[in-house]
Specification:
This protein is mainly α and about 650 residues long. About 60% of the residues lie in helices and about 5% in strands. It has 24 helices and 7 strands. It has a 5-stranded mixed beta sheet with strand order 2-1-3-7-6. α23 (about 585-590) links the parallel β1 and β2.
Length: about 650
């Protein structure tokens, strides 16, 4: 899979050189990622139709594609006149250029070191977070068992209605690794590094110098939530990649005076932007808020530039299939299961349930305040929580109303220094963002911005504010913000650039970059210690690492699964009714057994396999008054392993 991505990038980049197309390497990388994702997505959907998602077929299609791309690369190199000797010479020249840059700016080594450490930790850390254990990874195991990504019967509806793209990637990884999850965290880790590179590259597009491009990348890499998610199977770093890809390509058209023309090059580039929209939606729909606002910025620029409406319409209709076609399979599955383009439960708890302006304003304040606590303010989490409390009292708004608070949870803010993968607080980026906004409001906005800086500043600010307004507050809101915090990193760098352009400003800029970089490095050290402690403890070895966040559960899971294996059961029914029941450990510990949810009563009950009669049932929840009966079997032998955690067997099998 990685070989295909590299070969695809090489083919695109060399093709552009052959045709004399001037374009950045990063643009070729973006196009390669979009096409690589398209191949993976298409192969997943096509193989699912015939229930052929299995090792032999995936190994064959990836092998054939790798071979084809390598052959095409060799042909292109030959046509370009590249021989083995000249190729080695070019590699050495590229290495010398890299070494020269490193000598001129050795501080870039810090970014390399952080990236290597985080990638290394992502490879050795066992998946352990709540989302992974309850729905991210169980759905992968189900798909692999069913050899299809079609919907299936489950009591955990989030396994069906959650976005699918990141799990499609890890499904291929899981099958090609023969059912092992060693590389599950790699997608998020690689996305983390990619986002840092993109943050620096976008800062460069905003006319930032080398030190400020470094700062933009460092700001992202030192964000506690971004680093924490890089070590999990969450999807937010991966979602941020598609938003940053989209914005980077969009800057090609807002930073030039030449109108957008309806030609092959423009259609190709806007088509990749359309794919970014589709992949972003299928990864995490929340990033589409930013995409819409940045697209509106592009539209405004086109109107002010007086681009031809006919050309714009042609480009739009050519790019539209790039968005619509990838979305179609999942939408059709949702219509089959839920009678709608998405499950009523999908995103319902994440979007505000009111249009009242006062409630929306208070909700925005609650979300913005999440990242305000800082070690420099004692009891900051209590102090900053009062902002939303005072606003709610002033506007006569119920602070914990369900319309602006998930399940009516009581409003609170986490303390500074929280580095958990769901609740990490990110004060450095947010405070710098607020200072930039204040600075602009006090007079920086009157200065002439270089290039597209002003538009980027406004679009980023609006994206974040609109996002904080429509996203219903919850104690885990930090992870949804990653993509928008990533957009702030280049904006902060550009703001520093503009604010220090006066005489003697260069010295002030260096001092400011140095201070902020030092703060970022201190944060990175603390983050690393926190996650090293997790890795050195329970998250180091499988299957114990799955319970790193809930260590007490091992006292239930291991005796229960030991009893199942000792009886040599092959088919196991699951009745897990709580949303926080860890399901994935059963798949790994009971490797080789067929697992199916039973007695499903939600919309997915239509997919129940009536021929499935389990040898035993893992039952988490209240026991029914009458013995459970399935397919003529009566499961009247009950063994309790914990509070409302049972193994149900037939009397014949249990030996009782």
């Amino acid at each position: 899979m990685l070989l295909a991505a590299v070969a695809l990038f090489g083919n695109i980049h060399i093709y552009k050189k052959r045709k004399g197309i001037e374009d950045a390497c990063l643009s070729s990388y973006i196009e390669a990622c979009c096409l690589w994702m398209l191949f993976l997505f298409a192969s997943t959907e096509i193989l699912s139709v015939g229930r052929a998602l299995r090792f032999r077929f995936l190994f064959a299609i990836w092998g054939v594609w790798d071979a084809g791309l390598l052959f095409l690369l060799a042909v292109q190199l030959k046509e370009l006149g590249v021989t083995a000797a000249s190729g080695m010479k070019s590699v050495r020249a590229a290495g010398l250029r890299g070494w020269r840059i490193f000598k001129e700016a050795p501080y870039y080594g810090i970014l390399v070191a952080i990236g290597v450490i985080v990638l290394g930790l992502s490879l050795v850390t066992t998946p352990y977070n709540w989302d992974s254990m309850t729905y991210h990874l169980p759905r992968i195991a189900y798909w692999a068992q069913n050899r299809s990504v079609e919907h299936y019967a489950t009591n955990s509806i989030r396994q069906i209605c959650s976005p699918v793209l990141a799990e499609f990637v890890n499904l291929h990884v899981y099958i090609l690794c023969r059912g092992h999850d060693w590389l599950f965290n790699l997608l998020q880790g690689a996305s983390y590094v990619t986002c840092a590179v993109l943050a620096g590259a976008i800062a460069g597009r905003l006319s930032c110098g080398r030190s400020l491009r470094f700062l933009a990348a460092l700001l992202y890499m030192s964000m506690p939530i971004a680093c924490a998610e890089a070590l999990t199977t969450q999807v937010d770093n991966f979602a941020a990649v598609w938003l940053l890809f989209f914005v980077y390509r969009l800057l090609d058209y807002v930073d030039v005076k030449k109108a957008m023309c309806f030609d092959k090059a423009t259609v190709w580039r806007v088509g990749t932007m359309g794919l970014c929209v589709a992949w972003g939606y299928l990864t995490k729909p929340s990033v589409c808020v930013g995409m819409v606002i940045f697209a509106l910025w592009l539209l405004i620029v086109c109107f002010r530039r007086k681009d031809r409406l006919r050309d714009l319409a042609g480009i739009f209709f050519c790019a539209l299939p790039c968005v619509a076609v990838p979305l179609t399979p999942e939408i059709l599955r949702n219509f089959k299961s839920f009678g709608a383009y998405a499950s009523p439960a999908a995103g319902a708890a994440q979007i505000v349930g009111t249009a009242h302006p006062a409630y929306l304003f208070v909700n925005m304040i609650k979300n913005i305040s999440f990242n305000l606590p800082t070690p420099f303010v004692k009891n900051g989490h209590e102090i900053f929580a009062k902002i939303a409390q005072k606003a709610a009292a002033l506007l006569q708004v119920e602070l914990d109303a369900e319309s602006i608070s998930e399940a009516g949870r009581q409003y609170m803010i986490h303390e500074a220094g929280n580095y958990a993968c769901d609740t990490a607080v990110n004060p450095i980026v947010l405070w710098l963002f607020l200072f930039c906004v204040l600075w602009a409001a006090l007079g920086l906005g009157r200065k002439k911005w270089e290039g597209c800086g002003r538009g980027y500043f406004v679009a980023t600010t609006l994206s974040f504010l609109v996002f904080c307004t429509v996203l219903r507050w919850e104690p885990f809101v930090s992870r949804y913000m990653i993509a928008y915090l990533a957009l702030m990193c280049p904006m902060i760098a550009a703001g520093i650039q503009m604010g220090t352009n006066r005489k003697r400003g260069c010295l002030f800029r260096r001092g400011l970059v140095g201070i902020v970089s030092l703060m970022c490095l201190m944060e990175t050290v603390n983050i690393s210690r926190y996650h090293f402690d997790i890795w050195e403890g329970p998250a180091r070895t499988r299957p114990y690492g799955y319970f790193a966040a809930r260590y007490d559960e091992m006292a239930v899971y291991f005796p229960l699964t030991d009893q199942i294996r000792s009886r040599q059961y092959d088919e196991v029914g699951l009745y897990l009714m709580k949303a926080d029941d860890f399901e994935y450990p059963f798949w790994e510990i009971l490797d080789g057994c067929r697992l199916e949810h039973i007695l499903v009563s939600n919309e997915t009950a239509v997919y129940t396999d009536e021929s499935f009669v389990p040898d035993c049932i893992i039952w988490f929840g209240e026991l029914p008054e009458e013995p459970v009966k399935i397919g003529g079997r009566v499961y009247d032998s009950i063994t309790e392993f914990g509070g409302k955690q049972y193994l149900l067997e037939t009397v014949e099998n249990s030996g009782k």
